[in-house]
Amino acid sequence: MRIAHVPYAQAGGRLKMLYDRIKGPDDNVDNVTLAHCLRPHSMEGHMAL
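The structure corresponding to this sequence follows.
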C-alpha cells in the first residue's frame, strides 16, 4: 500500500508554509511529515506536540 503525498515542489498555500517550517537541506521533507500532507491541520497539530 502506498500513501499519497504532495512533494515540496508541488505544495502551495498553507501546506507550503508548513513544509517551509520543517524542511531540511535541499528542500527535503521527511516521510512522517509527508504522510500528513493531505490534512495540513493534522500536520500542524502534530508539529505542536
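The first helix runs from residue 13 to 22.
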